[in-house]
Amino acid sequence: MIARAGSLHLGVGRIVRNETTGDAFRVVRKLGVGGFGAAYEVAQIAPKRPFPARLCLKIANEADCWHREAYFGQLLFSTTHAIRVMASFACVLRGKRKRPQYCLITELAVGGDLRQYLQAHPQPWSEAKARREIVGLLDVLCLLHDSAAVHRDVSPANVFVTGDRTLKLGDFGIAIHRRGTRKVEADMFNPSAAPKRIVARQGRGFWKPADDVYQVGQILAALLLGNADKKLGARGVKALGCSPSMKGVIQRCIGERWNRFADGPEMLRAVRGAKTPESAIRVKSLEGKTVVFTGRLGITRQEAAKHLRRAGGMHGARVSATTDVIVRGHSPQYIADDKGNKLLHVDREREHGHRIAVITEQQFFRLARIRGKT
């Protein structure tokens, strides 16, 4: 729900008080207006409890998102990469209508949100730095997903930058737990950050942890591009200044839901872990092997399958848990370090412990004993 900016206007110097604890805060400046409400930088003036010197006040008219953010703020309070919620309370401000305003006091991320930060500092982040910060965000997401909750809005507007360029996830106003075995409905989401399938169905579908993964993949791409103003498509992955394995991770994240990492923990393992090099699995013979071809070979697929059968192997149309070898032919995609669907499926199967070798067409020709092609 978008806040009515006029009803949440607080002038500089305005005092907001928590009547339960006696804590009071003076408005320093306005930070902005968003889906939750309005945000202000405030300073504590009547300390009953010690808070940091620079704080953020988020104030809203409606209670639902406030309840959620206060709850998840308490749940994630000790988590390094989540914005810390220091206090939550309702108050009636003098001069306003006699209805409560709902307030949160949080830590202030001095760099603003990620979109603002990258607009002011449009330099691509190194892969090492981007990886470290994404791992931090995924630590938060893992806590949510492991507790049967989803965030539903991991957008550049809700990822915040601290003074040392540490990223922190905030704004849990539409985060929600799954009830029992029931799926979470996609009835609340940010269209500018949601997967196309969610947007196209206009709230008639379900939001899964894999949809949070999609959003984290977009954040990772934004860091590597130095630009968070638009979502990245599959064709844009090859232009990223990162390693092929990281491009593969991003492709998995922003692709179709069925091929994404299922949740935060699965994506975290992929980002952290070094994948088995394609050359590490040696193939001495094709006999008894299930082989899948991808890309353009020097012979037709039909001829390749015939030679494979003569060598004692079996042709598979798709990569699966039964695949032993994939033959990587020529493709403009591969030259650009971009991966096709079959190679992405190899990554997925490897994550589940299935050993699949990737060989070149020259290696295949040699193993299949095809003369004139080695």
Please characterize this protein's 3D structure.
The chain has 11 helices and 16 strands. The relative contact order is 0.09. The radius of gyration is 25 Å and the shape is elongated. The N terminus is likely disordered. It is α+β, with helices and mostly antiparallel strands. The protein starts with 14 loop residues before the first strand and ends in a 7-residue tail after the last helix. The protein folds into 3 domains: 103 residues, 2-Layer Sandwich (Phosphorylase Kinase, domain 1); 159 residues, Transferase(Phosphotransferase), domain 1; 90 residues, Rossmann fold (3-Layer(aba) Sandwich). The strands form 5 sheets. It has a 6-stranded antiparallel beta sheet, covered by helices on one side. Strands 14-13-15-16 form a 4-stranded parallel beta sheet, sandwiched between helices. It has a two-stranded antiparallel ribbon with strand order 7-10. A hairpin with a 6-residue loop joins strand 1 and strand 2.
What is the CATH superfamily label of the largest domain?
Transferase(Phosphotransferase) domain 1
Q: What is the total domain count?
A: 3
Total helical elements: 11
CATH class of the largest domain, named: Mainly Alpha
Biggest pleated-sheet summary: 6 strands, antiparallel
Based on secondary structure, the structural category is: alpha+beta
Radius of gyration: 25 Å
Helix content: 25-40%
From N to C, what is the helix and strand string?
EEEEHEEHHEEEEEHEHHHEHEEHHEH
- Number of DSSP strands? 16
For the record, the CATH architecture of the largest domain stands as Orthogonal Bundle
